[in-house]
Amino acid sequence: MILYFSATGNSQYCAEWLADHKKDDLLDTFYHIRHGVAAELQSETPWVFVMPTYCWQIPRAVENFIITGHFSGSRELYFVMTCGSEVGDVEPKLRDLCQRKGMNYRGVLPVVMPDNYLIFFSPPDQAQAQTIRQKAEMTLQQGLEWMNRGESFPPVQKESLDRLKSGMVNRAFYRFHVKAKKFYAKSSCVGCGKCEHVCPLGNIHLEQEKPVWGTTCTHCMACICKCPVEAIEYGRATRNKQRYLCPPYQGRDKSGKGV
Ligand SMILES: Cc1cc2nc3c(=O)[nH]c(=O)nc-3n(C[C@H](O)[C@H](O)[C@H](O)COP(=O)(O)O)c2cc1C
Ligand code: SF4
Ligand code: SF4
User: Is 244's C-beta closer than 6 angstroms to any atom of ligand 3?
Assistant: First the structure.
């Protein structure tokens, strides 16, 4: 079974690509994460978790989903992490998670997709994003071949600072930087409520038809990128920056119906 968490569509795209090519079941974890419902799932095929990379680590919401969930059937667990460039030294945490769940760690496949973190970066334009996605499909194809042969993904190549980035820097990032207080809606907000519905942590509610942010933000970028009138900003960091959303996966026959 392929499970995914996705804020701006990259991980969803990769999960749908894998489900289509692997002919496997697919589950969006949004409901469980948003409502704090522990998963009770069964799969005879290996588990494949697809998710974004957040500060060189697995997103905390996904980590919690795995820790609290009950997964019966197959004991094999693969991770696919979409990223703007690299996943750092994420493997020790993933191995540890597998051990806690009584699962066999089968590796992590980093898949470079357009970077959605518009607080720090400017997302690529549409043509660049398309090229990045085409390369990502080649990486997914390689990952699929490993899985079909029953092999683990090869270890991720590490660089000297990766341990620091996935450890101390990640902890400081959540503690000091990941806050919602700089989010605001401009007067162009039409009060549609989409931001409230798409937040995976239920961190937004509308007051007098305007969004109000709470304190459980994970900086996923769903609210800011999915607002239909681009009314949301994060301080000055996102002004005049293009928003990013991955287009839906169209299926192998490109008809939009899948195969
Ligand atoms: C809070 C945050 C932190 C991120 N940290 C990293 C990172 O450490 N390394 C990286 O390569 N990309 C990083 N990214 C980029 C995302 O992992 C990447 O764009 C991902 O494909 C987004 O997935 P989604 O569209 O499924 O939400 C970060 C993005 C966000 C929002
Ligand atoms: S999605 Fe945008 S327009 Fe809709 S309520 Fe939220 S900020 Fe306003
Ligand atoms: S408030 Fe926005 S950025 Fe924060 S978790 Fe919710 S959707 Fe993501």
Answer: no
| Alpha carbon nearest to ligand 3 atom 7, residue | 199
In eight-state DSSP terms, residue 241 is P
Confidence of residue 253 (pLDDT cuts 50, 70, 90): low
State the chain's mean pLDDT as an integer: 96
User: In Å, what is the CA distance from 162 to each residue of 6, 81, 157?
Assistant: 24, 16, 10
Handedness of CA 137, 142, 148, 152 (dihedral sign): negative
**Contact, 83 vs 111, CB < 8 A?**
yes
Number of alpha carbons in the 13 Å side-chain half-sphere of residue 63: 14
119 half-sphere exposure, CB direction, 13 A CA radius: 18
Q: Provide the residue type at 171 as one letter.
A: R
Read off the tokens for 60.
């905390």
Give the chain's domains with CATH numbers: 2-164 (3.40.50), 178-234 (3.30.70.20)
d(CA 83, CA 145) in angstroms, rounded, equals 21
- What is the H or E stretch that residue 135 is in? helix 126-148
Compute, in angstroms, the gap from residue 149 CA to the centroid of ligand 3.
Answer: 38
pTM over 0.70: yes
What would the pLDDT profile of 188-207 be if each residue is shown by its tens digit? Answer: 999 999 999 999 999 999 99
Interval between CA 212 and ligand 1 midpoint (Å): 24
Q: pLDDT tens digit string along 4-48?
A: 999 999 999 999 999 999 999 999 999 999 999 999 999 999 999
Pocket test for ligand 2, best of 229, 230, 238, 243 (most atoms within 8 A of CB): 229
